[in-house]
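Run log // design_07
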């Protein structure tokens, strides 16, 4: 039963309870990274673009989530990092050997393995320092050379991470202009990273709240194979988001089934290879046989298919997305107990531009209104712990609509008539 069939059923019967039902309507969305793919764009599956920031405005990023300890570099903008030696080498840097040092990179599959965290054991050695299980202090053990995008070299070290505060020291290679930067993680509530720009010597709060976005489009460094690292433009999913790729599909919008057991927590499951540049055509070709399933932190899953990429000329990406639904169950007993139970719409029919919705208990729900074609007729509305709410329907023209009230477990549908 698709959404159009469901609308017809509701018109005839009045109400239906289904498990995780939603519209199989493709919603096309456009993401703009601007010319040169200059911006990193934070994107929500439900709400579209949340915010954007100039990618070249930062050089390194400190993890500010509780228990976070990594530092990432802006490889997509040209920053490079090399490990020079033990902490005791700070005052004796031999500039002549710097060009011989191998680069170290962020792990694009794991937000918590930034370049400064490479080489650790994942337990007490976190790369740049050692964790003391008695004092809970991480003490720095290494000196790093950071090459900024303009070629400037800085020697850097993290002296400690104690009680949620990074102490990061940087200086010119000859030791001049030594600065200590303090980063207090609790100053950045509900963020994954805070960013630092060496030119302005300023910390920059560039991210939206981490629960408000699912993916970020940006430039980053990745291994293209055989240890060949190169900057790419792609998509990394948020820490609390799970995803999977399904390929070999004739119609990626409607073929291929979501399997929650195949979900993974890799940041780069979507990555960059959903497109490829055709030298003969002088344009990007999209992988037309694959889709991605993106599961938000709240458990809602979307099917995503990339439909256009204009490259650096405009920085525009287009995708189509479908709210992924499980197969509709048979109609359930309306007297069954669940966390949503029934709801009431009044007045119905309505001609006032406003409809009241009453729940039988204090539930956290989202409300979706569909037209008879199965398309969303208005933006989804979210309500937390309320029993009586008002739905603004003044933008809806006369006709029959389907109202879905969705909780974490079930969805109810009812007919709404606008006169």
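design_07 sequence
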């Amino acid at each position: 039963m698709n959404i159009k069939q469901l609308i017809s059923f509701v018109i005839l019967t009045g109400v239906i309870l289904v498990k995780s039902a939603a519209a199989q309507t493709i919603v096309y969305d456009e993401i703009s990274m601007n010319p040169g793919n200059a911006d990193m764009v934070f994107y929500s599956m439900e709400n579209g673009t949340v915010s954007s920031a100039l990618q070249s405005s930062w050089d390194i990023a400190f993890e500010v989530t509780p228990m976070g300890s990594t530092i990432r570099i802006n490889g997509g903008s040209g920053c490079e990092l090399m490990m020079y030696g033990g902490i005791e080498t700070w005052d004796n840097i031999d500039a002549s050997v710097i060009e011989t040092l191998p680069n170290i990179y962020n792990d694009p599959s794991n937000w918590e393995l930034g370049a400064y965290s490479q080489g650790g054991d994942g337990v007490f050695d976190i790369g740049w320092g050692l964790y003391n299980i008695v004092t809970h202090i991480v003490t720095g053990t290494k000196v790093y050379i950071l090459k900024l995008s303009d070629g400037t070299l800085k020697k850097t070290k993290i002296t400690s991470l104690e009680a949620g505060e990074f102490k990061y020291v940087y200086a010119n290679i000859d030791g001049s202009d030594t600065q200590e930067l303090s980063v207090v993680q609790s100053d950045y509530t509900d963020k994954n990273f805070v960013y630092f720009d060496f030119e302005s010597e300023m910390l920059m709060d560039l991210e939206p709240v981490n629960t408000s976005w699912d993916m970020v489009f940006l430039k980053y460094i990745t291994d293209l194979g055989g240890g060949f690292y190169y900057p790419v433009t792609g998509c990394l999913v948020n820490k609390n988001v799970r995803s999977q790729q399904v390929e070999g599909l004739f119609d990626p919008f409607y073929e291929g089934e979501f399997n929650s057991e195949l979900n993974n927590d890799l940041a780069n499951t979507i990555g960059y290879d959903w497109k490829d540049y055709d030298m003969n055509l002088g344009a990007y070709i999209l992988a037309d046989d694959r889709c991605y399933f993106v599961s938000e932190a709240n458990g809602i899953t979307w099917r995503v298919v990339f439909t256009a990429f204009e490259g650096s000329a405009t920085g525009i990406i287009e995708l189509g997305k479908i709210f992924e639904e499980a197969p509709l169950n048979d109609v359930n007993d309306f007297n069954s107990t669940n966390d949503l139970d029934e709801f009431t719409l009044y007045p119905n029919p309505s001609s006032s531009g406003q409809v009241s919705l009453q729940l039988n208990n204090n539930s956290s729900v989202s409300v979706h209104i569909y037209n008879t074609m199965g398309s969303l007729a208005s933006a989804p509305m979210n309500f937390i712990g309320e029993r009586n709410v008002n739905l603004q329907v003044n933008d809806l023209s006369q006709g029959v609509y389907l109202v879905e009230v969705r909780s974490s477990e079930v969805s109810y549908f009812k007919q709404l008539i606008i006169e």
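Confidence is low (pLDDT under 50) at residues 13-23, 326-341.
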